[in-house]
């Protein structure tokens, strides 16, 4: 069975759901000696199966799959109000807004069947604690199971479920926080303090995540007790990533000089480059994931097609200025060299 402590390089590529994560990226990181990841989020089970096969065709190295845990929508009525607010955005981009679907579980059951019947070395979870029965089934199938946590209490809860390891995600991370409670404001404890706090309540191996984009960042995380460092933003500009052209350009554009945490695009707190859409809608966005994700999807697609970064969810961590356009293998080796 895979163990992250056996990696040649103590670097984990974050899953990067929504397009940037690709089989090419996961395979390149695995071939370099790190742990590559695929994102199950926003894909059908069939689509995930295709990505797993494509990754296996490119590498014999270890890779994982990250799965979103479905949670109740805290404020479904708020999504309806938000839909009305977005009417002007829909007109701006010439799209129709969908009717939100509260029953959307992101194909949870089918994805779990796939991962149990055709196991991959690592399965990680975010957005909540995986059910104990799911953890048991994946362990029996031979997968290393990881839960993403953002607080001491979440770490205690996840440890009790029987997972093999925890991904400790600090507030510096780009993209969604893995908070168990979708209505809660994310804990602000920085990763450097969160790692020892979590270590105090669990003996499980810890992966560190949150703004790690340099070798020095990785070295600090390992010194704080992590067995490996998970990096996402560092890979966004790599040629293997599926990052859209306007997203790539924004990451290198000095005009996008700040990251903020917002619910404006999906209804869950996520860190990204500050843009016009966030400025216009952050204050009124309700805690209504995945309904807001559904509502803004056509807006984001139209903006990407138009090359307009100001209605894109430009997820990025606090270290985004260190992201480079190097090949993923070079980025992996550079991160480990610290």
UniProtKB/TrEMBL annotation:
A GO molecular-function descriptor:
monooxygenase activity
Under the heading InterPro entries, the entry gives: Aldolase_TIM (IPR013785), NMO (IPR004136)
Reaction(s) catalysed by this chain's protein: 3 propionate 3-nitronate + 3 O2 + H2O = 3 3-oxopropanoate + 2 nitrate + nitrite + H2O2 + 3 H(+)
Cofactor field: FMN
Recite the UniProt keywords alphabetically.
Detoxification, Flavoprotein, FMN, Monooxygenase, Oxidoreductase
Membership in a protein family: Belongs to the nitronate monooxygenase family. NMO class I subfamily.
Name of the protein: Propionate 3-nitronate monooxygenase
Query: Whose protein is this, by species?
Result: Streptomyces millisiae
């Amino acid at each position: 069975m895979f163990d992250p402590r056996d990696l040649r390089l103590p670097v984990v590529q974050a899953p990067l759901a929504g397009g940037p994560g690709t089989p090419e990226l996961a395979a390149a990181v695995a071939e370099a000696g790190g742990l590559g990841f695929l994102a199950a989020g926003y894909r059908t089970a069939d689509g995930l199966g295709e990505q797993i096969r494509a990754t296996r065709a490119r590498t014999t190295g270890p890779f994982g799959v990250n799965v979103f845990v479905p949670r109740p929508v805290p404020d479904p009525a708020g999504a309806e109000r938000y839909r009305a607010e977005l009417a002007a955005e829909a007109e701006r981009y010439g799209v129709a807004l969908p009717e939100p679907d509260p029953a959307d579980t992101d194909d949870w059951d089918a994805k779990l069947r796939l991962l149990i019947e055709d196991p991959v070395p690592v399965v990680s979870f975010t957005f909540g604690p995986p059910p104990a029965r799911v953890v048991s089934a994946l362990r029996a199938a031979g997968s290393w199971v990881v839960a993403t946590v953002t607080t001491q209490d979440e770490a205690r809860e996840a440890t009790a479920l029987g997972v093999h390891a925890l991904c400790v995600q600090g507030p510096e991370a780009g993209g969604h926080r893995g908070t168990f409670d979708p209505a809660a404001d994310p804990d602000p404890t920085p990763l450097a303090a969160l790692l020892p706090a979590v270590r105090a309540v669990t003996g499980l191996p810890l992966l560190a995540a949150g703004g790690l984009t340099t070798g020095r960042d990785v070295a600090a995380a390992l010194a704080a007790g992590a067995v490996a460092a998970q990096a996402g933003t560092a890979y966004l500009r790599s040629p293997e990533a599926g990052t859209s052209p306007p997203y790539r350009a924004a990451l290198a554009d000095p005009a996008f000089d700040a990251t903020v945490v917002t619910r404006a695009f999906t209804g869950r707190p996520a860190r990204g480059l500050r843009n016009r859409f966030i400025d216009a809608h952050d204050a009124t966005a309700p805690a209504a994931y995945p309904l807001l994700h559904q509502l803004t999807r056509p807006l984001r697609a139209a903006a990407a097609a138009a090359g307009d970064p100001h209605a894109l969810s430009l997820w990025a961590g606090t270290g985004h200025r260190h992201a480079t356009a190097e090949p993923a293998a070079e980025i992996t080796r550079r991160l480990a060299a610290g």
